[in-house]
């Protein structure tokens, strides 16, 4: 055949660039169609950016005692302090901390704990789910029975329990410094089940598909089949659950901190701020509670809306 | 294709050497409920004898077909041969080498055998990894068996393979979802050809395709067979497709071979009552408005197969011996082998 | 639309005089609006089915055969909708009925049989309950009468010992038996029209024959019209009285079954018939139609088949052929233009290899 000689320089037909393809995709189209999702995306982005760039945006570092003036305590929102001349956008708290700054620094911790906990749960759940779904047998039975048992407890109770157990093993002096890690592990451990279940189900479906059998026919080892074929194909549901899970993890962290078992007041998350703020709810200083509460609500709600939308777009059958 | 002329269509009569020999192949699956349920419900362990004592040989360059209705075990035989499942019993001899333990082999030992055969699957939508580009999919056997190739060489080989199956080399950059079912099946075939196999197991390769596309794929498979002297094991439920493709046909029923015969002989004069039934049941264009011969009953649940000859409850010629004794394949003068007491005793032709 | 007197009226004449067709479809058009374009999934479909007649609708996947059935019973998946034409059931227009008015038609006047029996049967109820409920919903019967009727139906569809099977659940039946139950369910209210969409595709050949024979016999006895949608020419050959061949959302040929199979008039039908392997003859190569059916978004101008057609001329690329008389059939092809028929190109199997080589 004459084409043999020319095969080296394959002419690829002009294809639209990646960006063009992406902008034309159904996902972007669906995004543009839904104002609620657009708003949720914007809110999420603004809050992420605010948390990420907090040190450069905020007028003060609320954790640095040198920057706080006790005399400015309980300044109402949108007021300039009579004493120091500092303007407080969202007011100040009992210590004279700027509530706006505290919220941004607080969301930093909330988001850090949220992301890390989801990542922890996701990795653990995915590994266990892959193993259960791919190998089956006693591994599957064991992992899934543990998952079933764990599911019978509300996850916040599970997190409380794990939190308590881990703290019990640590010397008291370490509690404050490792609080954040303990919190991440507790929330992560309370949340791996749904990833494991989703991944196990998807793995069993993918495993039986013919492209996996085709890889087996040429003798590709299980490890490579898992990594190259199955894992990428089961990641979709995982990412959707992860997005919704992020909202849940942020709320779980806030709940724990609100109950006083999470972040200490020296490193307040949004939950800690709410706990502190509720003391002043009925004494007139409503802003100390209200603004962190609104911030938490907005963050959790918009991330959750994004997750729901992503689930609908990526897998309409889940509805 | 010019190469096709130089390669003989079929090996000369004297070279009819056996490429694959299947001896008393069996595969049982445990389909019991989980342990806890068994204990609580006091139910027994259940075994599905998907394949239960199947033996045949495939000569180099020929096409042997396995036909039968759903649940007859034909796909399981295919998967046993390519080492997707381990054997419960029996032996597989591939080109003189015992490969019965293939499913548990690994590394160089497995690769030496595995690179000599390939498999084509039924569902063109499930047989290609949806996240991989076509070039990566076709290149996969090359990466496994011919690691010495550079990326450029591999790319070039993928382009050649694509053109060989009637597609364009540029298709390598696209994703499976951009193609129709027939094109996907061509991609599947290109992948199967990549490691230059001698033997190809084809599991219902056209049953998910429309007839006009089926014709394209069947023609392509025959062209490739001539060009490379390929040996096919062809699995299908469609008698007409099997007639078109196969040199010899094995009719399976509930995990066993009922009859194995040269294609022409089987269609001209089927011996086993089940073969006759299958042939009579084929809807035919020639007989417009013709009523098909009605066969009573359905394939029984393979977990609880009938005693003796599994076909006896549906067989018009069954007697007491058929419900008691499992018939074995007995060779006949016309080159066919039939597992039927009635045929053996001369009760039916 | 009704002002264009064309093939459709000649089509109507094919129905035996005095027999009003049970189903009459005229210029049916179904559109799927997408964000890029409006796809025309069914384009100008016209046909009739007479009482007791079985019309086979064949075509490859995506040709619109199932959609034709779904359009008639108004079960189009959104955003698909009927965008033109009309559908009449025993003379009464039904395509413009609102969903609430349509619901009573399904089951009572139009019975439905789908490929997977499990989609028609509720797994949570015994088949007796489902049958009795269906019968009572459509016919004025009390419980014991309906029960008698259910038993009679089950006996008729060949379920052995129906008295003992009434209390059984769908999962306790085999595939073939389930499809028999579905047929009983579809016939329960004595509908005038049965729409059977690939009723035997999921079944083994031996069972297929039983089910088709049953379906054909029961409908003939009751004088019900049947629209049998399938991709399997063999099923059509055996069961249908007339065949409608679809391609890319259009009806391209319709005629008596023997005529369409033995003397296909449209080049696509010709190719389709030639590409089916038979069990009596064995060819070295099967005839193959080059290329693939166009996607709905890229249906060529003129005749939709023109890029794959060996006889295509300039006219085929610009002007769309209507159904024209061709032998005893109607075919939408300029080869059969009564005024100025196109000449046929000689086509041999040998050209296949040549075209392959050229690629």
UniProtKB/TrEMBL annotation, chain A:
PROSITE patterns: ABC_TM1
Localisation: Cell membrane
GO biological process, one term: transmembrane transport
Signal peptide: none
Pfam families in the cross-refs: BPD_transp_1 (PF00528)
GO cellular component term, pick one: plasma membrane
Alphabetical keyword list: Cell membrane, Membrane, Transmembrane, Transmembrane helix, Transport
Keyword Ligase: no
Domain ABC transmembrane type-1, chain residue ranges per copy: 107-307
Main location: membrane
Bilayer topology: Multi-pass membrane protein
Stretches that traverse the bilayer: 36-57, 109-130, 151-170, 176-195, 238-266, 286-310
Family: Belongs to the binding-protein-dependent transport system permease family.
PANTHER family reported for this sequence: ABC TRANSPORTER PERMEASE PROTEIN (PTHR43386:SF26), OLIGOPEPTIDE TRANSPORT SYSTEM PERMEASE PROTEIN APPC (PTHR43386)
Name of the protein in question: ABC transporter permease
Lineage: Bacteria, Pseudomonadati, Pseudomonadota, Gammaproteobacteria, Oceanospirillales
TrEMBL record, chain B:
Every ABC transporter domain range: 20-279
GO terms classed as biological process: peptide transport; transmembrane transport
InterPro entries, per the entry: AAA+_ATPase, ABC_transp_ATP-bind, ABC_transporter-like_ATP-bd, ABC_transporter-like_CS, Oligopep_ABC_C, P-loop_NTPase
Domain of life of the organism encoding this protein: Bacteria
GO MF term (any one): ATP hydrolysis activity
Sorted UniProt keywords: ATP-binding, Nucleotide-binding, Transport
Cited Pfam families: ABC_tran, oligo_HPY
Family per record: Belongs to the ABC transporter superfamily.
Protein name, UniProt field: ABC transporter ATP-binding protein
Organism for this UniProt entry: Halomonas urumqiensis
Automatic annotation (TrEMBL), chain C:
Enzyme class: translocase
SMART domains linked: AAA
Subcellular location: Cell inner membrane
CDD domains hit by this protein: ABC_NikE_OppD_transporters
InterPro entries linked: AAA+_ATPase, ABC_Ni/Peptide_Import, ABC_transporter-like_ATP-bd, ABC_transporter-like_CS, Oligopep_ABC_C, P-loop_NTPase
Record-annotated ABC transporter domain positions: 25-273
Membrane disposition: Peripheral membrane protein
Gene Ontology CC terms, in alphabetical order: plasma membrane
GO MF assignments: ATP binding; ATP hydrolysis activity
Entry keyword annotation includes Cell membrane: yes
PROSITE patterns found in the cross-reference section: ABC_TRANSPORTER_1, ABC_TRANSPORTER_2
Coiled-coil residue windows: none
Keyword flag ATP-binding: yes
One GO process term, biological-process aspect: peptide transport
Reaction equations catalysed: a dipeptide(out) + ATP + H2O = a dipeptide(in) + ADP + phosphate + H(+)
EC number: 7.4.2.9
Protein name according to UniProt: ABC-type dipeptide transporter
Protein's organism: Halomonas urumqiensis
Source lineage: Bacteria, Pseudomonadati, Pseudomonadota, Gammaproteobacteria, Oceanospirillales
